[in-house]
Amino acid sequence: MTGRLPRRAVLGGILGGLALGTSPGPSAVAAVPGREPYVPLAVGPGGGPAGSDRVHVLKVGPDAAQTVLVLVPGMFGAANDFRLLARDLVAALPGVQIWAFDRREENLADRTGFATADPAAYYLDGHYRSLDPADAGFAARWGLARTVTDLRTVVRAAAGGGRRRVVLGGHSWGATTAMAYAAWDFDGSPGHRGLSALVLVDGGVRGAFEGTGEPVHNSPEEVHERLAAIDGGAVFDLTLSGVGLGSRAESTQIWYQLAGWYAHRDPEGRSVLQPRMPDALRPPQPVTNAGLLGTLVDASFGWPNDISVHSGHLAASGEVRDWVDKGITPVARVASAYAGGPEPAVWQWYWPARLSVDLDVTDPYTDTDLAHSLGLRLRHASALDIPLYAFQTSYAKGTIVSSAQEVVANSRIPYAAYETDNGMNHLDPLFAAAPHNPLTRTLAPFLAGLR
């Protein structure tokens, strides 16, 4: 879901922001009927526990659609990132079906507590099954090669034996993954063969993230050091521990899904989670379940761009402060997405550190000696010959589009569409209400124009 959460303190401004607010107002999510199956697909062996040699796709839209848009979530993201966006795209363009991809890592999470009446007790009192890094040595080998090989199974299934057009895209590092797939050499066959277009949402290669101020850590010395740490047992990326909601690989993701679960089911009820929050993040006054979720996701509370949206603020008064929607992303839409089912979910609990290394090394988008040494088969970047769409928010300050333009200039891509909305943060395109989401408005005609 995130791009690359800054490895710095994220608490600045939060407690000050919690005191903000004006008057309460309604928020709602329109119910969208229809079957949205979450389908497993068998993939090759990866050395993980029983049941992990499979991926899933969340399908939104008609099976008879002639175009399938396969979307890859970003860092720590999962299939439910795309459900609301997919519904809006299908409504705007009925001839498309969206497949949201869940990596095999999703099989490692214990989400059974979200099918109970009291998930907070299950997760916060330590009843869930947590994966100890010491028991997850297999994850040291779950890098980009594993991911794109799994993704190839999904792309082929989406193509239906050549009966359907397949567009591949993603958000943040999911966009980077899509670009890697397109340039990948699959036993002599380029990944882009069989694709009709590429869709990049706030991500990519060739310096796409430079504008965030967070450098890409891909020098040979840095990569050697990171690989040594992985070999030493640090198999999971712990970036999200910087949020302050726990030190385990899955801690922050559990808190966010719990916040979404309660805000979705009882938005106006007094927050179940507030008394159990760490002191530094606990709102100073009583809030509702919706109010707590808002404080965890809204940009006004000091959160970094890559984990926040523009939603609203806490009410200025009231014995229990409710949430007031004022922005482009109503908190009820965030709650609907974050709550999950228990499956699919918005958050990936266990992100392999090796995948982070490989995606950093992918950034130059060429078959360098370093990439080759890591088994990254990026041999066909200059031969890309399919249309490209790129959308950027304020997140990277313009480098998403400039990097996409560089890809186009150094390939055979016939045409490209570039869109920008600097009023959005990194997650807004995923959850914003359709009337306020330029991603929906501009991506639909791009897809409609493919031949």
From TrEMBL:
GO terms for molecular function: hydrolase activity. InterPro entries: AB_hydrolase_fold (IPR029058), TAT_signal (IPR006311). PROSITE patterns: TAT. It comes from the Bacteria. Keywords: Hydrolase. This is Alpha/beta hydrolase.
